[in-house]
Write a structure and sequence with these properties.
alpha/beta, Rossmann fold, 5 strands, 5-stranded parallel beta sheet
Amino acid sequence: MSLSVLAIDDSRTMRNLLSAALGRAGYSVELAEDGQDGLERFARTNPDVVITDINMPNLDGFGVIEGVRSMAPGRVVPILVLTTESAPELRQRARAAGATGWIVKPFDDEKLIWAIERVAPTGGAA
């Protein structure tokens, strides 16, 4: 059984890059184009790991983190923030909301997969 990852980013290019990198790693990938779409897909697909951007229309990444935490209170779903932002106060705000990790764009495929493997509840793809 492969690990399922929900990747949320308003950039089509970034979604394509994430889909390719995660697919090559053997993960089942669900893509969402903004935070609202991401929460709807989270509810339908129940992914093992969530990757979210911060700056998005309709609902930002902080709202995604809070939404996931409220939708899955009995389950610890790792949430990795993937963003161009690097300000310490934003990282702290994400941690306080319940984010598991922070990766600055542009991402390196190997480092992204390593981060997912570190936080994944099942220990990664089979």
